[in-house]
Amino acid sequence: MEPKPSYYKKAKPILENVSSSLANETLYAQEIKDGYQLVDSSPKIRLKILKTSITDVYTVKRALDNGVVFKKNNIWYYEYYVSGELVSEILNIKF
After folding, report:
1. What is the pTM (predicted TM-score) of this model?
2. From CA 81, how far away is CA 21, in angstroms rounded?
3. Beta-bridge partner residues of 28
4. Higher model confidence: residue 72 or residue 64?
5. For labelling, which of 12, 17, 45, 46 has a CA lying 20 to 30 Å from the CA of 2?
């Protein structure tokens, strides 16, 4: 018997496509009814993150994209797709 070829593509490492547009800012979490709004120091709302049933995992709805915010190895990430390409941003969130 010979092995059959796999049709699954290997996932890219999480840090390969990391963007830094929000990474250099400290975002402050302000609790809202269904999650948090993340504001910068001005204070401008940068993201609204909505609670899920999983600890440290939030959904995000923005005008330009939708995504997920999650904590992995004590680092917060915001992941979303742009033109079919996964983008991962590191977030500095203060709760």
Report:
1. 0.75
2. 15
3. 39, 94
4. 72
5. 12
